[in-house]
Amino acid sequence: MKFLVLIIIITFTFGCNSDKINDFIDLDKEDKVSIYDLIDSISVVQLETKRESLIKSPCVLFYKNKYYVFDHDQQKVFCFDSNGKYLFKIDKKGRGGDEYSYAANMEIDTFNDMIMLLVPWGNLVCYDLNGKFISKIRLPETIRSYNEVFALDKDRLVFISH
After folding, report:
1. Which of 62-66, 143-147, 149-153 has the lowest mean pLDDT?
2. CA dihedral sign, ordered 54, 89, 87, 106
3. CB under 8 Å to 29, separation ≥6 — which residues?
4. How far, in Å, CA of 95 to CA of 144, rounded?
5. Higher pLDDT, 55 or 118
6. For position 23, what pLDDT does the model report?
7. Angstrom distance (rounded) from CA 140 to CA 52
8. What is the rounded distance in angstroms from the CA atom of residue 111 to the CA atom of residue 141?
9. Exposure string (b/e) for 15-48, b if CB count within 10 Å is 16 or more?
10. CA dist 34 to 39, 41, 43, 44, Å?
């Protein structure tokens, strides 16, 4: 094992030649990139406006033909179909088993098809894609504040604390 690590270190040390890097990257060249070089189409979806679906500070995720909009100020998740029609909202503020006191982050676990709301003081509250409560998980107290959560695969999550 030590031999393999030594070979890797030697390869990186002697294999990197700064002259070769400069041949590939021209830092003085100013390229112009159009948005059309990055995407193939642009469309606007007007979200249905109802009294119960007014949004103040949105964070939007699109998954399985639905828009999931987390309003950080209101602490609610709104769901709209791909045409912008309002479907439902998650508004479960409180201290109960299926509630959250404050959500710092919303993500969608695409491996398990669920909405994850992260309470920074150590809870992860999960709902299905239709807004039905699944579980509330107490996170280890060794970290004082959880800020973001991402699914790595079906069985693993990564948490970020700043």
Report:
1. 143-147
2. positive
3. none
4. 19
5. 118
6. 55
7. 35
8. 26
9. eeeeeeeeeeeeeeeeeeeeeeeeeeeeeeeebe
10. 9, 13, 17, 19
CB atoms within 10 A of CB 135: 11
The residue ranking higher by pLDDT, 22 or 86, is 86
| Position 119 pLDDT exceeds 90 | no
135 and 127 Cβ atoms separated by less than 8 Å: no
**Token pair of 69 as six digits:** 């909009």
3-state secondary structure the chain: CHHHHHHHHHHHHHHCCHHHHHHHCCCCCCCCCCHHHCCCCCCCCCCCCCHHHCCCCEEEEEECCEEEEEECCCCEEEEEECCCCEEEEECCECCCCCCECCCCEEEEECCCCEEEEEECCCEEEEEECCCCEEEEEECCCCCCCCCEEEECCCCCEEEECC
Distance CA 128, CA 136 (A): 12
pLDDT of amino acid 15: 47
pLDDT at 9: 46
